[in-house]
Design brief:
- This protein has helices at residues 2-8, 25-34, 54-70, 93-108, 137-154, and strands spanning 39-43, 75-79, 113-116.
- 28% of the residues are buried.
- The longest helix has 18 residues, at 137-154.
- The chain is globular.
- It is mostly helical and 155 residues long.
- The protein is built from five helices and three strands, in the order ααβαβαβα.
- The protein has a three-stranded parallel sheet with strand order 1-2-3, sandwiched between helices.
Length: 155
């Protein structure tokens, strides 16, 4: 997050919750009502991976819509699951999550929301740490470079 902000010359506030982010409606309400920003990145997925995407779809629909509608002049980058263990070992569960977020963003059709496939941010296994969920230092560098390019093209 800090590397992307530095690349873009932007101030940053990181509200990420490592390992416990579940797109709670209360957190969407907080961001919608209390936060001011020119653009926001919302990475949604890896903490909720399981074969059923129903709960995920309901949560992201509210999360993205609530924040985007409260900030119509700010770009919202809706990012799904980065390349991870699921892409290698778990029958591609993450791919279902990617398709779900892409579908929801398309259905919402909000002009300030940009869908970002997480595999365009972290692209392969070589960027992953031992557990295959979190990026290693090389992965962090790749993510910063790719996300900077995506944001730069869309703001």
């Amino acid at each position: 997050v800090e590397r992307v902000a530095a690349n873009l010359g932007a101030d940053v506030t990181n509200y990420g919750f490592a390992g416990s982010a579940r797109m709670q409606p209360e957190f969407a309400d907080f961001i919608a009502e209390e936060c001011e920003f020119d653009f926001a990145t919302l990475e949604m997925g890896v903490n909720m991976l399981n074969p059923d995407t129903t709960d995920y779809e309901n949560r992201i629909r509210y999360f993205v819509k609530r924040i985007a509608e409260a900030h119509p002049n700010s770009k919202i980058f809706a990012i799904d699951v980065y390349y991870c263990r699921s892409d290698i070992l778990e029958n591609g569960i993450a791919e279902g999550y990617r398709k779900t977020l892409q579908k929801v963003v398309g259905e919402l059709a909000l002009p300030n929301v940009v869908y970002v496939n997480g595999k365009t941010v972290l692209t392969n296994v070589y960027g992953l740490s031992e557990g295959l969920y979190h990026p290693n230092p090389n992965g962090i560098m790749e993510m910063a470079q790719n996300l900077t390019a995506i944001i730069s093209e869309n703001i």
